[in-house]
Amino acid sequence: MARVSSNAQQDSSGGIIMSALNESPYDYCKEQLGNDATTDDLLKCITEQLARDSGSLQYSRTVLVVFSAALVFFMQAGFAMVCAGAVRKKNVQNTMLKNLLDACGAAIAFFTVGYAFAYGGSDPESSDKTFIGTTNFFLMDEENYAFFLFQFAFSAASATIVAGTLAERCQMAAYLCYSVMLTGWVYPVIAHSVWSPNGFLSAYSVDPLWGIGMIDFAGSGVVHVTGGVTALFATM
Predict the structure, then answer these.
(1) CA 90, CA 158: separation in Å to the nearest integer?
(2) What is d(CA 140, CA 155) in angstroms, rounded to the nearest whole number?
(3) Of 8, 3, 14, 6, which is closest to residue 42 (Cα–Cα)?
(4) pTM of the predicted model as reported, rounded to 2 decimal places
(5) Which of 38, 89, 151, 197 has the smallest set of CB atoms within 10 Å of its CB?
(6) What is the mean pLDDT of residues 158-170?
(7) How far is CA 35 from the centre of its chain?
(8) What is the DSSP secondary-structure string of 197-227?
């Protein structure tokens, strides 16, 4: 039978609770159970420690959000290939640089004001409707950086949708200004309206519009329609 050292703590169910937070679950269980512990006992102890870790579920969610953000951001590469195939050979480098500026401009604009306008000060328990957010500028007092990264990827995607329509039609400086304006103001206002719990179209509001609100799970309206309508006006 596996032994438990004298300094081990037990919960009400008889399981071992890890007291040294800086120890890995394996090292802790190895120390507590001793060298004569069976593999089954060791695995059971490690499983218990991981299950009791209050941050383990949040960590898994964070990893999933960051991975999803990477997939969304990879749309930049796809749009870059589309743009490169839609222009003459001499303008390939120019259009690729514009796609790079999309990401750079979006990062600056969404970090400084865009995220704050979209989600700053959101209160899921309030029935108040707001036009834009009013806090978390420059990510001040924001703790969920993974969520910011995920939303930044969406804002950059909405901006780069327009890249193909403006290929060979727009100056570099004007294109950068457009990217900053779209991701820093236009997109955040729409994202706040639909995805923030305080948006007037939000389905997550305490009092949603017409009792149901607008449900846009993957951004077909918030991201793609915003980019598409912007592209339409950009080509007119």
Answers:
(1) 26
(2) 19
(3) 3
(4) 0.73
(5) 89
(6) 85
(7) 44
(8) TTSTTBTTSSS-GGGT-B--SSSIIIIIIHH
